[in-house]
Every structure is written in structure tokens, then in C-alpha cells.
Specification:
This protein is α/β, with parallel strands linked by helices and 393 residues long. The protein is built from 14 helices and 17 strands. The protein is 36% helix and 17% strand. Strand 12 and strand 13 form a beta hairpin. 51% of the residues are buried. The structure holds 3-phosphoglyceric acid (3PG). Its EC number is 2.7.2.3.
Length: 393
């Protein structure tokens, strides 16, 4: 793929796919991370004489115009972040878009309405992609986090205009390559989260790529149960016992060590202030549920990290939303951050809850790289080709 530096942007309309799918409450953006992270791309385009025309989706309006899902509400926060005038167009194609793009003054930014207001966007309709392309001379994709979608604005456009990766996209691809594509070994993956069922492909791929796979969170219970442990009332997908065993066998064949908790924090209820105790995995009572990894397991993870050169992390190790069940996640995150600060470890994290967990531990900034992506990060960990990246060539 080409980067922005490889393109001649002077006087060009640069149709830039960004991800503005930010969390909102009562019409206010509650986390501006995704907005902040596209700023370098937009500024680079302006500095190199180009006119940024931003395309994005917001939420899932299913091909209909849904006023609450309008990108109009993002124009203000975007303007604050970029420090340039942002002009909003009430449609991403047709007359409304053309008028705004044609009238754009030097240094201004156009923001076009939610691409998903048109059903042709998700259908990756060629004619719709051509209508989008009519407002650009160059296509820049800066939405790694939407690159797992083969939509007109994430994939189709790359076939119609000279194309390149934006700064954030390039940064993501380089960081991910350093973590799994071409990593310095030993490589450790930490995978947590509630359910194995959502991460089967990911685990199956990781055991062939990493030296040690740490499994935590609710999904570890399914693995423990598959080895004959009684996990009591814990969240557990008993029907996936066979699959968990197969992943274990695949790991052995590939020379990957799987690390499961050996002690756990259990409680009878999952709520703040619930009475909890730490027990060995073989001592969970039938009316108890596992809510976190215990101190012995956390120390073991720390030891493995001490030996590692690369870490890729997705998903919390326990029910981190409620103390004290956040302890294993926070301690492992702080340990990884410390090793990263001293230059011993390259640490890459991504996907939904992971970023919140690292923020809670106060260490997201210390990681080598924290991806802006949720679903796309998972698909990349599954070893899948992301259509939005593949189309950039
Ligand atoms: C995300 O928020 O992960 C991306 O913007 C993709 O959104 P989607 O899952 O609705 O395609």
C-alpha cells in the first residue's frame, strides 16, 4: 500500500474514509479518541495542499435516514479537534455533497453525511461507489477499525481512485505487523473476555503464531471445565468442551504453551461488595462463580511477560468492571506497561473492552500501541484478510 507521502495532493480533493463511530450519550461524544486519532491525517492533507473530504459511518441505520445517527452532531467536536472549519454536507452523494466540496476554501474540511444512510454502502454497490468517487481525486483510507467491512466507502472506492493509507491506518498496520506479522520472539498473547464462542477462530489462529497463549476471563472457565475441573456456577460454555480440547491439541502440535489460571477469585454473587475468596482451581464450590484470576496466576503471567519480547492483548482477565475482580487485569496490564517503559517489551492491545481495561489500569499510554479498532482488531487476530486493507494493494 501507498502512504499519504507517496501521493501528490496539491489542489486535490482527498476523499478520506475515517471512523467517527464514537460513543455518545444524550447527544454528546463521551470518548473523543477516534476523532483525535484522525487529526494527523487531516492536517497532513491540508499541509500538503489537499482538500480533505471526510466520509464515515455512524452506528447502524440499516440503509435508512435516521436523524439520531446523523454525523452532523460530530461536526462540532471534529472542528474542535482539528482546529479548522468543518463544513457539513447533508448527504454523502449528489447535489448536497457536491455543493459543499466545490465550495471548500483552502484549509477547510468537508464532512459528508453518514454513508450508511444509503443501503448501497453496505452492499458495496459499484454505482454508489462511483457517486462517492465523483467528489474526490484521491482516495485515502484512514479507517482501520472499519476495514473488516467490504463496503463502498471502505473497499469499493479503492478500485476507482488512486488510493493510499492515512496516517492512522499506516500506524495500525505497522504496529500489528510488529505484533503478529513479523514479531520479535518470544511472543505472548493474552486473550480474555466472557465467551469462547466469540473467539474460536482467534484462539485457533493464535496458537499457531505465538509461543505462549494466556487465556483468562470467563472463557478460561470453558477450558478448565474441558480438563475436568468443576467450575461451579461460573459462566461456562460446556457444549464447547470438545472445541476447547481441540484448540489445546492444536497448541501442543504448534509448540504453543497455553496458560490457564491455577488459582481464582470466586464469589456467590457478581456485585459490588460481594464476599469473595481466593481458591485453587480444584477447590471452587458448586455454588460459587469464578470472577478473576488469583494472585498465583497473576504472578505466573508476570513471569511469562518477563521472558517475552512481544505481547498482543485482547480482552480482560476477569470481571474487571467491578472491584476486586479487576485485580488480575490491572496487575498484568501494569506489569506489561512497566516492561514496555524499560524497552524490554513491545506491547500491542486492541478490541472493545481491552482499551477500557487498560485505561482503568491507567496504563494505556504506556503500551507500545493501542489499536482504535474493535471488530477489525479481532478479525486481524483471527488471521483474516481485511477487505479495506487488501483493496489498498
Ligand atoms: C467499530 O465501531 O468497530 C467500527 O466503526 C465498525 O462498526 P460496525 O461494527 O457497525 O461495522
Amino acid at each position: 500500500w501507498k502512504s499519504l507521502d507517496d501521493m501528490d495532493l496539491a489542489g486535490k480533493r482527498v476523499l478520506t474514509r475515517v471512523d467517527l463511530n464514537v460513543p455518545m450519550e444524550d447527544g454528546r461524544v463521551t470518548d473523543t479518541t477516534r476523532i483525535d486519532r484522525i487529526v494527523p491525517t487531516v492536517k497532513s492533507i491540508i499541509n500538503r495542499g489537499g482538500r480533505p473530504v471526510l466520509l464515515a459511518h455512524f452506528d447502524r441505520p440499516k440503509g435508512k435516514v435516521v436523524p439520531e445517527m446523523s454525523l452532523r452532531q460530530i461536526a462540532g467536536p471534529l472542528q474542535d479537534a482539528i482546529g479548522r472549519k468543518v463544513v457539513f454536507a447533508a448527504d454523502c452523494v449528489g447535489h448536497a455533497a457536491k455543493e459543499v466540496v466545490d465550495g471548500l476554501e483552502e484549509g477547510e474540511v468537508a464532512l459528508l453525511e453518514n454513508t450508511r444512510f444509503h443501503p448501497e454502502e453496505e452492499a458495496n454497490d459499484r454505482h454508489f461507489a462511483e457517486r462517492l468517487a465523483a467528489n474526490g481525486d484521491v482516495y485515502c483510507n484512514d479507517a482501520f477499525s472499519a476495514a473488516h467491512r467490504a463496503h463502498a466507502s471502505t473497499e469499493g472506492l479503492a478500485h476507482l481512485l488512486p488510493s493510499c493509507a492515512g496516517r492512522l491506518m499506516a500506524e495500525e498496520l505497522e504496529a500489528l505487523d510488529a505484533a503478529l506479522g513479523n514479531p520479535v520472539r518470544p511472543v505472548v498473547a493474552i486473550v480474555g473476555g466472557a465467551k469462547v464462542s466469540t473467539k474460536l477462530d482467534l484462539l485457533a489462529n493464535l496458537v499457531t503464531k505465538v509461543d505462549t497463549l494466556v487465556i483468562g476471563g470467563g472463557m478460561a472457565n470453558t477450558f478448565l471445565a474441558s480438563q475436568g475441573y468443576d467450575v461451579g456456577k461460573s459462566l461456562c460454555e460446556h457444549d464447547l468442551s470438545g472445541t476447547a480440547r481441540e484448540i489445546g491439541e492444536k497448541a501442543v502440535a504448534a509448540g504453543c504453551t497455553i496458560l490457564l489460571p491455577r488459582d481464582v477469585v470466586v464469589a456467590r454473587e457478581f456485585k459490588a461488595g460481594a464476599e469473595s475468596r481466593t481458591v485453587k482451581v480444584e477447590d471452587v464450590a458448586t455454588d460459587e462463580m469464578i470472577l478473576d484470576a488469583g494472585p498465583d496466576s497473576t504472578a505466573h503471567i508476570a513471569q511469562v511477560l518477563d521472558e517475552a519480547k512481544t505481547l498482543v492483548w485482547n480482552g480482560p482477565l476477569g470481571a474487571f468492571e467491578i472491584a476486586p475482580f479487576d485485580r488480575a487485569t490491572v496487575e498484568a496490564a501494569r506489569h506489561a506497561a512497566e516492561l514496555t517503559r524499560t524497552g524490554q517489551l513491545t506491547s500491542v492491545a486492541g478490541g472493545g473492552d481491552t482499551v477500557s481495561a487498560l485505561n482503568m489500569a491507567g496504563v494505556a499510554r504506556d503500551f507500545t500501541y493501542v489499536s482504535s479498532a474493535g471488530g477489525a482488531f479481532l478479525e486481524w487476530m483471527e488471521g483474516k484478510d481485511l477487505p479495506g486493507v487488501a483493496a489498498l494493494g
